[in-house]
Automatic annotation (TrEMBL):
Name assigned to this protein: Ectoine/hydroxyectoine ABC transporter permease subunit EhuD
Locations listed in the record: Cell membrane
Keywords of this entry: Amino-acid transport, Cell membrane, Membrane, Transmembrane, Transmembrane helix, Transport
UniProt source species: Wenjunlia vitaminophila (Streptomyces vitaminophilus)
Listed Pfam families: BPD_transp_1
PROSITE patterns given in the database record: ABC_TM1 (PS50928)
Predominant cellular place of this UniProt entry's protein: membrane
Metal-binding among keywords: no
Amino acid sequence: MDWDWSYVWDFMPQILDGLVVTLKATVLGSLLAFGLGLVWTLLFRVPSRWVRWPVRAVVEFVRDTPLLVQLFFLFYVLPTLDISFSPLVTGVIGLGLHYSTYTAEVYRAGIEAVPRGQWEAATALSLPRTHTWVAVVLPQALRRVVPALGNYVIAMFKDTPLLYAIAVLDMLKQAQEVGAESFRYLEPMTVVGLLFVVIAYPTSLLIRLLERRLGTH
């Protein structure tokens, strides 16, 4: 099958619409993953095992089950319990929940990397526990984990094609519909693949630059 540029220009607006949805799912999913991951990490440090153990069980369950299965559960099973969301919202929740279990470990590593002397200094100054976390520990921990979090954003971006399974009109879904209309899949699928590379590769280079700037190596 020969490559047809005129065909590419015809379907590009549709693919770009899908790109907007893909980026939206990535950004919103990342924000949810970052926030929820920090919540998991803080709950892991609660003294009571009656809090830590259930949280650990939930995190391990989510981490050890495939993202696609989780998306199917959210989209097809929850409505039977009268809990339903739009495909995009379901996708964002699925991505954010899944990746929060990984960002939780990133936060944990960042917090444990804060020198013990910082904790001792805060104690010597009689800083309230909340102030110690907000003003002393978390700023130092976050500086260390920003590059790792950025890598998870790229990973999430590359996982967005899974949202096709729950009818989200992302790039892959749009490419599939374009191909189904004309029975030409070469151009739309190739364009989608190239768009992933064009976005993911420069982003990974920026993360490496950020890594060096923050002195994480």
